[in-house]
Specification:
The complex is a heterodimer. Chain A is of the alpha/beta class. Chain A has a single domain, classed as Methylesterase CheB, C-terminal domain (Rossmann fold). Helices cover 29% and strands 21% of the residues of chain A. Chain A is built from six helices and nine strands. In chain A, helix 1 crosses helix 6. Chain A is globular. By secondary structure, chain B is of the alpha/beta class. Chain B is built from ten helices and ten strands. In chain B, the strands form two sheets. Chain B has a seven-stranded mixed β-sheet. Chain B is globular. Classes of the chains: A alpha/beta, B alpha/beta.
Chain lengths: 191, 272
């Protein structure tokens, strides 16, 4: 089969968010210059096949922003968006597998599923950031990330639009660092 | 502590499933199958991988459950309404003139898409001369498809999808409800032929004007995806149509040059 060999990014920043997280992404993206790692964004959203979120995020950065395509390998300097209504898993060769199985935490995509799978593959070359949201999704994923040596960050609940989601992770004792938006931006820029 | 199997354990497990039962999962996406196996071990409360492995090797009944849980059977009626609009407006008129219409739903899961298609054929006045072949690797979902019984709780959403796809009738006229279940009308069910079929090991069994296989290829590796697309190609008439899931593509397959895509939906037409 015809396909070029691309070298997968050896480091990954995965960001999970729900209600109130879009604003954080819209602050973060313009602040990023060139990056030599890949970013994976998973947000809860209703509609599948909806390019609006991608277009909105792409308008705020010079980096490439794209919805994940099946079996694609994440390359440095690109921001990948998990498509609506699918889970995303990572294979050992780092390529993405889409999955249409049962919802997890009433969500598809589920942040737990993405974080867990990324941890299995990226281990200590992974940082996962959990943003604002009204759901407990993400906490189990972060636990798995820590177990595999990755770093975990939660948005400061008092600075989050909807504090519940980062709060759950903090209460679950799975968070290495708690940060406000400016600190998150600094951290990602210097990752 | 949750059990999480490693690569060697997975290999041993899949090799036994192939040797003992003849099911070959070795070209399935590893990430997905590992997750499903971990989930099953946890659902069925096995204390260790070894005990799970032993049960699977020694209990043929448990193999059925394994196949059912390892494969994903999530589906909906009229999922992605714009896809169904394209079938209704572009594909169905093209196959309407055939004396006899044969459609294959490969990997049909519990059959929601097959019934959606039967409804559209009925509305186009074509159901009487159509046969819908619904196949899946998993015998229990094939049986569910045959029965045509679904949960009443989903019907409101399905009805909305149906309307969004261009449906103009009363969706509830296609089924009768009893307690929390509905059964679809005989008129639809008698045009659906249900059978197990394994895309990995079974061959082509007929020629079709339309093959639908949505959200199945995502669980296969590139090699198996290509093989299955060749199987579909061999089972499709000239100028026939092939429909895949919204995130799937034929683009990287060897058969791609003999097809062109219709608009932005994941529907391809075989060139002459």
């Amino acid at each position: 089969m015809a396909q070029e060999k691309v070298k997968a990014s050896d480091r990954l920043v995965a960001i999970g968010g729900s209600a109130g997280s879009l604003e954080v992404l819209l602050c973060l993206l313009p602040a990023l210059g060139q990056i030599n790692f890949a970013i994976l964004i998973v947000v809860h959203r209703k509609v599948s096949n909806d390019p609006i979120l991608r277009d909105l995020l792409a308008s705020r950065t010079k980096l490439t922003v794209k919805e994940i395509e099946e079996k694609e390998v994440p390359v440095p300097g690109t921001i990948y968006l998990v498509p609506g209504d699918y889970h995303v898993l990572l294979e050992q060769d780092k390529s993405f597998t889409l999955d249409y199985s049962e919802k997890v935490n009433y969500s598809r995509p589920s942040i737990d599923v993405v974080f867990e799978s990324a941890a299995n593959v990226y281990a200590d070359k992974l940082v996962c950031i959990l943003l604002s949201g009204a759901n407990a999704d993400g906490t189990e994923g972060l636990r798995h990330v820590k177990l595999h040596g990755g770093s975990t960050i939660a948005q400061l609940p008092s600075a989050s639009d909807v504090p519940y989601m980062p709060e759950q992770a903090i209460l679950g004792k799975v968070v290495d660092r708690i940060m406000n938006i400016e600190e998150i931006i600094d951290f990602v820029k210097n990752f | 502590m949750e059990i999480s199997i490693n690569d060697e354990q997975l290999k041993a497990l899949l090799s036994d499933v192939l040797d003992i039962y003849g099911y070959d999962f070795s070209d399935y996406s590893h990430a997905s199958i590992v997750r499903r196996v971990n989930r099953l071990i946890s659902l069925d409360k096995f204390p260790s991988f070894a005990e799970f492995h032993f049960r699977l090797r020694t209990d043929a009944q448990y193999l059925e459950r394994f196949v059912e849980e390892i494969t994903v059977n999530v589906t909906e009626m009229f999922r992605d309404p714009s896809f169904y609009t394209a079938l209704r407006e572009t594909v169905i008129p093209e196959i309407a003139s055939k004396p006899f219409i044969r459609i294959w739903h490969a990997g049909c899961a519990t059959g929601e898409e097959v019934y959606s298609m039967a409804i559209m054929l009925h509305e186009a006045g074509l159901l009487h001369k159509s046969l819908l072949y619904a196949t899946d690797i998993n015998p229990s979902v094939v049986e569910q498809t045959r029965r045509g019984i679904f949960s009443l709780a989903h019907m409101r959403e399905y009805s909305e999808n149906y309307i969004a796809s261009g449906g103009k009738h009363d969706f509830s006229s296609y089924y009768s409800a009893k307690y929390d279940r509905v059964i679809f009308n005989d008129m639809l069910r008698e045009k659906i032929i249900c059978s197990t079929h394994n895309l990995v090991s079974d061959r082509s069994f007929n020629e079709f004007q339309l093959i639908l296989c949505r959200n199945v290829l995502i669980y296969f590796d590139k090699y198996l995806q290509d093989r299955v697309l060749k199987l579909f190609d061999a089972s499709l008439e000239r100028l026939g149509f092939m429909a895949l899931g919204s995130k799937e593509t034929m683009k990287f397959s060897d058969v791609h040059p003999s097809y062109h895509q219709l608009g932005k939906e994941k529907i391809w037409r075989k060139k002459k």
